[in-house]
């Protein structure tokens, strides 16, 4: 290379970079839009609004297009028996599958109220809470190629499939209260003895012990009916049924009517292109009878979900009207762009997410084996800064305890056992707590023991993690903890393995499975939930030496607190003081056990396109109520 | 001693020439004379010198001047939505997404990038030298085994393997390989070294294959020198030039490798600034926070370009056959 060329290369490279960077810095013009919005939600103050958006009159017709970030991320390839992804539930519950009981697909508390869906109503348990009898509604038929009326035996078949581990059920633990469930799970029986179908319209569940939320458990998509003539084609093949899901709701996978109901001839439907696919297309189910359904409106003629790896591109297309909706998370810059532009602002709809983001502390690992250190962490963390790292008040409100108040019917809304000025942390109170710790023998208000140096923290590599970690490190330093942060792409795998003895993680977030606090306490704090891999009781609450040995966890196993009896007691309550029982358990966890530092109750922020005429939030699925949305044709 | 006259033509028909006196120059002098004429290479060397000074003193100095610690967050430097503000009188390069001083972090980033680049390249060169010398000089089965091992490494998808190694070594306090590989810089350097030495080994092997057939090696062998002596005194000195050249070209490659790993969120701890990790953070904000890309990106470009210019210059200066 000649000198001239080299100098030129140097100059051009720097100049080009400067120009590129400057160009990128120019402000994006916002679309002026032509909205005739009649209601708006959210605002710069971050208040969650009505959870709905109207821009004209909803009407039948059109294609509703949704950008889905990165990948579908299905946990069981869209096979409802094992599918545990909330976004998949949004499709099932709104558009494809009608379970015995369901929801109104509305925002707020109303959206968490049960209604009869496939069943005529929500049954009242008999026999002291041990028997539930559902009567099926008339006129509900399966989509092609099955084309027949749904019967109680189809529900029983789906439940048996869920009980059989070979068919991939991922939340079958919710149903172990059904008599005979374990026998199927252990391979000793082929059908659950506690499920009976006296006739085609009746199904009865016999429980071994009372479960006050059993009706709620029967709202989950895995319990929706599966026609045995199709289901048998996929026995022992978890996930494969995902490409041939038979709908009994208003929409079905495109291509359902182009396959035949014979195992030997059954091909995957064209509406879903498989585990690594990038699209799902749903079209109207010709066998659906609107008169059987009071809550689904079913405006669009079809829905098209398309994967896009670039979130910025998704939001640009939504803004430009090339997409109607998104399954993504707007970055702070996107939230700011919409919150500060009056023309765009109505199209951003923040909604309560029924979810808690938290730091988890392992009760067996120093220094978090000392409750005073755990409490000091709760006092010192600057939750306001963390909220800002997430994008400010619109993406979420500051969490003060375990379960979001919406699941207590807004109970504990004011409960904040670690209240600090402006939610910015309180060093004096943290120091006072730390002085009581064995790791602060000199009563300095800071952890001086070697256990507090280089405390391993597992973080993820998302953008928000890189913004939170400096805040966390600064806060921890104030009480004498220095952190050794390991950022891992997909941190869950690591923190879900008890044998790795991770003391602290900033990654966890938990959302409800259904509208009952049980779905938090049972999976996050019950000792029975501690498993070798995929564990969700990250703090190892209730860990005993026997369980520790089984899962390979080591550490300080003396006096690890347990709340198993409390969970069982609250779970058995049918009504009345059930909510109060959970609230008291929440308080106990926050003050006595202290496994977490909860810091954010995230809102689910959705941005809709200019052609959308109606949108509302579905509180059950924590996503768009696809059954109510409409788009200009 | 003066050089003898090269030729003379007798009088009576021709010109009588005076003896031509040519000063004898050592190889190093010849090298320097050629190198100093290459202004681009000299500029590269100066820039590298400055960058090394920045790497050593820049971070602490920047902290002292600005009063901002590299990991301290400043809430006034992010707006209500958590979007950072750009350069101003106190924050010369603006703030990053967490509200930290980007100027201070960019200065500390120089330390990480240069440290990783130089140390990883140094180790890679040492391993490559030993492997290449052994393979090229002894040939036979040693050559086959070592060369194939290098070929295998060249065929491996580096980023994928790096992701695996870094992840495997970063999920517990003690790292992996019994604590030999500690999470953080050590793992990153190890990963980069693993994938870098094979290039050097192939080059050294090629040179060694050629050199071992030279007359001066035969002479040494005839004089009774053993393999070790021949390697140390006859082969190795002739490899110094190429090694220096390829080292200077390997360093920027490895700096970019580190940046790529950090960009993917691997290896370098979050509390340790590196240009790659700053650029990684900029992904989500580049269109509203241009400074996040401009400053670390410019430093990265200037650094790699400086090393490349220096490497080019060194190659030209060592290699008399190269065109200028």
Structure report:
Chain A is of the alpha+beta class. Chain A is globular. In chain A, helix 9 (371-380) packs antiparallel against helix 11, helix 14 packs antiparallel against helix 16 (564-572) and helix 16 (564-572) runs antiparallel to helix 17. In chain A, the strands form five sheets. In chain A, strands 12, 13, 14, 15, 16, 17, 18 and 19 form an eight-stranded mixed sheet that branches. Residues 1-47 of chain A have low confidence and may be disordered. Chain A has helices spanning 3-25, 86-96, 152-163, 181-185, 214-217, 228-231, 311-320, 332-339, 371-380, 383-389, 427-434, 463-478, 492-495, 518-525, 545-551, 564-572, 578-593; strands at residues 52-54, 63-69, 101-103, 114-116, 131-135, 195-199, 202-206, 251-253, 279-284, 302-308, 325-327, 348-352, 355-361, 396-398, 455-459, 483-487, 504-505, 509-511, 596-607, 612-618, 623-624, 630-631. Chain A has 17 helices and 22 strands. Chain B is mostly helical and 324 residues long. In chain B, 45% of the residues are buried. In chain B, helix 2 runs antiparallel to helix 10 (291-318), helix 5 packs across helix 6 (185-211) and helix 8 packs parallel to helix 9 (275-282). The chains are: A alpha+beta (633), B mainly alpha (324). At the A-B interface, helix 1, helix 8, helix 10, strand 15 and helix 12 of A face helix 9 and helix 10 of B.
């Amino acid at each position: 290379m000649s000198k001239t060329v080299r100098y030129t290369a140097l100059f051009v490279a720097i100049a080009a970079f400067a120009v590129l960077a400057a160009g990128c810095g120019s402000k994006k013009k916002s679309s002026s839009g032509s909205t005739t919005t009649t209601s708006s939600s959210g605002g710069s103050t971050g208040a969650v609004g009505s959870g709905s958006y109207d821009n004209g009159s909803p009407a039948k017709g059109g294609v509703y297009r949704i950008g889905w970030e990165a990948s579908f991320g299905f946990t069981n390839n869209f096979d409802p028996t094992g599918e545990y992804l909330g976004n998949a539930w949004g499709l099932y519950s709104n558009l494809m599958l009608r379970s015995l009981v369901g929801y109104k697909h509305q925002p707020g508390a109303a959206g968490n109220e049960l209604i009869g869906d496939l069943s005529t109503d929500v049954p009242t348990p008999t026999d002291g809470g041990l028997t539930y009898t559902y009567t099926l509604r008339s006129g509900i038929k399966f989509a092609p190629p099955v084309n027949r009326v749904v019967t109680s035996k189809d529900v029983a078949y789906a439940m048996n499939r869920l009980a059989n581990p070979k068919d991939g059920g991922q939340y079958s633990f919710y149903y172990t209260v059904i008599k005979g469930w374990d026998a199927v799970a252990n391979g000793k029986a082929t059908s659950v003895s506690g499920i009976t179908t006296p006739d085609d319209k009746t199904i009865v569940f016999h429980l071994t012990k009372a479960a006050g939320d059993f009706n709620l458990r029967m709202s989950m998509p895995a319990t929706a009916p599966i026609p045995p003539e199709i289901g048998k084609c996929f026995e022992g093949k978890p996930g494969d049924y995902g490409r041939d899901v038979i709908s009994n709701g208003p929409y079905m996978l495109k291509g359902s009517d182009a396959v035949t109901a014979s195992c030997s001839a059954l091909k995957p439907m064209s509406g879903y292109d498989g585990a690594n696919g990038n699209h799902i297309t749903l079209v109207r189910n010709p066998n659906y009878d609107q008169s059987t359904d009071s809550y689904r409106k079913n405006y669009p003629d079809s829905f098209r979900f398309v994967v896009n790896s670039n979130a910025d591109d998704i939001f640009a297309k939504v803004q430009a009207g090339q997409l109607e909706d998104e399954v993504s998370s707007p970055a702070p810059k996107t939230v700011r762009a919409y919150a500060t532009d009056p023309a765009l602002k109505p199209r951003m709809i923040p909604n309560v997410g029924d979810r808690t983001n938290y730091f988890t502390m392992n009760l067996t690992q120093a220094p978090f084996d000392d409750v005073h250190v755990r409490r000091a962490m709760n006092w010192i963390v600057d939750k306001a800064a963390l909220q800002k790292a997430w994008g400010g008040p619109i993406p979420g409100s500051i969490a003060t305890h375990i379960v979001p108040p919406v699941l207590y019917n807004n109970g504990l809304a004011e409960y904040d056992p670690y209240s600090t000025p402006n939610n910015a942390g309180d060093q004096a109170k943290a120091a006072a707590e730390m002085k009581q710790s064995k790791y602060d023998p000199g009563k300095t208000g800071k952890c001086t023991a070697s256990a507090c140096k280089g405390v391993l923290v597992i973080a993820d590599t998302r953008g928000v993690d890189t913004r939170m970690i400096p805040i966390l490190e600064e806060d921890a330093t104030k009480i004498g903890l220095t952190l050794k942060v390991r950022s891992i792409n997909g941190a869950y795998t690591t923190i879900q393995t008890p044998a790795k003895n991770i003391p602290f993680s900033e990654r966890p977030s938990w959302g409800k499975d259904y509208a009952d606090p049980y779905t938090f306490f049972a999976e996050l704090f019950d000792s029975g939930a501690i498993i070798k891999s995929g564990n969700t009781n990250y703090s190892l609450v209730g860990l005993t030496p026997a369980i520790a040995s089984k899962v390979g966890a080591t550490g300080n196993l003396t006096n690890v607190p347990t709340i198993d009896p409390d969970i069982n007691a609250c779970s058995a309550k049918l009504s009345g003081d059930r909510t109060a029982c959970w609230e008291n358990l929440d308080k106990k966890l926050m003050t006595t056990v202290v496994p977490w530092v909860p810091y954010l109750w995230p809102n689910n922020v959705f941005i809709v396109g200019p052609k959308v005429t109606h949108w509302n939030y579905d509180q059950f699925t924590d996503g768009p109520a696809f059954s109510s949305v409409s788009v200009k044709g | 001693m003066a050089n003898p006259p090269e030729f003379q033509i007798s009088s009576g028909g021709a010109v009588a020439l005076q003896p031509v006196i040519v000063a004898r120059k050592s190889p190093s002098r010849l090298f320097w004379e050629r190198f100093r004429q290459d202004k681009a290479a000299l500029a590269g060397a100066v820039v590298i010198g400055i960058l090394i000074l920045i790497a050593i003193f820049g971070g602490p100095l920047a902290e002292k001047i600005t009063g901002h610690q590299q990991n301290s967050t400043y809430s006034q430097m992010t707006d209500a939505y958590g979007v950072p503000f750009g350069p101003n009188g106190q924050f010369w390069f603006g703030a990053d997404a967490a509200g930290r001083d980007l100027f201070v972090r960019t200065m500390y980033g120089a330390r990480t990038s240069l440290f990783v680049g130089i140390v990883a390249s140094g180790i890679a060169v040492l391993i490559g030298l030993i492997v290449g010398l052994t393979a090229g000089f002894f040939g036979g089965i040693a050559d086959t085994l070592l060369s194939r091992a290098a070929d295998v490494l060249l065929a491996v998808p580096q980023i994928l393997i790096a992701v695996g190694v870094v992840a495997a070594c970063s999920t517990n306090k003690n790292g992996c390989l019994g604590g030999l590989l500690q999470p953080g810089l050590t793992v990153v350097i190890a990963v980069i070294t693993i994938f870098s030495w094979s290039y050097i080994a192939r080059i050294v092997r090629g040179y060694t294959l050629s050199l071992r057939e030279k007359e001066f090696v035969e002479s040494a062998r005839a004089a009774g020198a053993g393999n070790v002596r021949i390697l140390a005194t006859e082969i190795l000195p002739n490899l110094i030039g190429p090694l220096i050249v390829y080292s200077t070209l390997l360093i920027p490659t490895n700096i970019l490798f580190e940046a790529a790993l950090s960009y993917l969120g691997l290896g370098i701890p979050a509390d340790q600034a590196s240009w790659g990790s700053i650029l990684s953070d900029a992904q989500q904000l580049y269109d509203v926070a241009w400074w996040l890309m401009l400053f670390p990106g410019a430093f990265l470009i200037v650094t790699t370009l400086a090393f490349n210019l220096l490497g080019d210059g060194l190659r030209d200066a060592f290699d008399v056959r190269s065109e200028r």
